[in-house]
Every structure is written in structure tokens, then in C-alpha cells.
Amino acid sequence: MKVCVLGLGEVGLSTAKYILSRDIEVWGYDISPNAIKNARDSGICNATSNWDEVPDAEVYVICVSTTLRESSPDVSSVFRACERIAEKNYKPSLISIESTIVPGTSRRVYEEIFDKQAYLVHVPHRYWKEDPIKYGVRQVRVIGAINKESLRRGLKFYKECLDIPLHIAPSVEVAEMSKIAENAYRYVQIAFAEELRIICEELKLDFEEVRRACNTKWNIEILEARDGIKGHCLPKDVRYLISLTSFKSICERAVDVDSFYRKWIARNE
Predict the structure, then answer these.
(1) Count of CB atoms within 10 A of residue 245's CB?
(2) Which of 240, 254, 3 is nearest to 105 (CA)?
(3) Do 187 and 229 contact (CB within 8 A), yes or no?
(4) Long-range own/partner contacts, residues 74-79 (CB < 8 A, 24 or more apart)
């Protein structure tokens, strides 16, 4: 079996390394020379920026970064990766999109780029840089498929070949939604902690003591309030969720709270 991982950033590189550890031939593709160097230094010898060097693979795993364009979802990198795959003999291959996308993206790719001929699944990545295998590649993952045969092939690859525990979503759209929902939920949790800290400070109460007291209840876990919600995924994915609705959402308020909190921190520290 040959597997090609497209996108060799933190998530893609961890994915490629784990697949390689399962004694599977892995090819890596990225347009960044630095990403290629890091991949080769990490043991992915077949890492390249030249797409023509990549042989036909049985499985293509898409781990490219998705972004925002004027606060709206930008998943064009996924479309470009799929167009690359479509240039090759992709029909007998399994294509897995692990990148974060909005509902409807997988079906659009399936119809517009692969002309309904590919086997396609969405297995959104989960990643924690402190332990990218146990709490990343190999933790319980969600899988959604475009059709039954795609699901069968996806389960064979992820469960049988990679030994990754899976939760089967009833549709690919549910899988797509689950990723942005879980990150947006985390964002809102942190924003609540930030707001509570501001309130406690105004009342001259120790936020950590209030937090500790609240967290003695079995179903309460107020998070820490640090220096604002950073990183790539949470700030992006909460906006992905906001983009899907027309009403004023709690997520929008959470973004406002975090913005205010950052300014508040700068003034008070």
C-alpha cells in the first residue's frame, strides 16, 4: 500500500509519521520547502514539493491548512489538493479529508472535482501538540463518508490498517459539523472564563478561588483565563461556525469577549 499525505504541517507531519510507523509506504507533499525539510528530518524520506514525483497511491490523506478570508471560511486549499489528486489515476483510491471544513465541502469536492467517481471520507483531525499521537492521530476520531463503499474503505484503512478508534457519523455533513462545533464550544468555554475573571476583578474577588470553588461541583469545569484565545484552530473554527447562521450567536459574543479581554489584560498587567 502507498499512502500520500498532502500538507506536512504539524498535523500532516504527525499523521505521516504515524502511518509510517505502521510499516506503510508513505509519500508526503507540501509546497513549503521548510515543511519538506522538517518531514525528511523526521523520517519521511519520500517528502517532496514536486507533485510529479508522487506515485499513484491507494490512499490520499489531505491535511492542508484551511483559513479565513475576511472572516469567512476559506477552504480553497482543500480544493487545490483534490485537484492535484484528480490529475492522477484517483478512481481506485480512497481520499480522506482531515482538514477542517464547513458542511457541504466534501460533497462539493466529490461532485465537482471527482465527478462522483472517487471513494471519499472526512475524518477531521484532532491534535494536541503536547502529545500528537495519543491526543491527536490515534485518539477516538469521527468518520463520515460520501457513500457506503467509501465508508467501508475508510473503516478498513483507519481501523484495520492504522488501528485508530472511530465514531461513525451518519453522514459526511455531520462529521464536517462536528469538528468546527467542538472547537467553537471550547472557544466559548474559554471566553466565559475570561468574562468571569473580569467580573471577579471588578468585585475584588480572587478569580482562581472562585473557579476552584465552582469546580468542586461534579458537572462544572471552568477553564483557566490566560492571555487570550490564541493559536490557529479555535479562533478560526469559531468563525466557521458563525458563518453558518444568520442570527446573533453566542459564538459572536464570545469573540467580542475575547477581544475585550485581550485589551483588558494589556491595561491591567
Answers:
(1) 10
(2) 240
(3) yes
(4) 75/99, 75/101, 75/102, 75/105, 77/7, 78/105, 78/109, 79/109, 79/113
What's the distance, CA 76 to chain centroid?
A: 15
Which of 51, 125, 132, 120 is closest to 90 using CA atoms? 120
Report pLDDT digits (tens) over 244-262: 988 878 999 999 999 999 9
d(CA 5, CA 27): 6
> Among the three residues 148, 169, 190, which one is the final residue of a domain in this structure?
169
The span from the CA of 3 to the CA of 33, in Å, is 20
Residue range(s) defining the domain that contains residue 190: 177-268
Overall size of the chain counted in residues = 269
- Residue 67's identity, in one-letter code, is T
**pLDDT value at 101 more than 90:** yes
- Local confidence band at 184 (pLDDT 50, 70, 90 cut-offs): very high
pTM: 0.94
pLDDT band at 92 (very low <50, low <70, confident <90, very high): low
One domain, residues 45 and 118: yes
* 57 shares its domain with 13: yes
Give the integer Cα–Cα distance in Å for 163 and 144. Answer: 17
SS3 122: strand
77: how many CB neighbours lie within 10 A of its CB?
A: 18
Q: Are residues 100 and 195 located together in one domain of the fold?
A: no
* C-alpha–C-alpha distance, residues 96 and 145, integer Å: 9
Q: Which residue has the cell 478561588?
A: 209
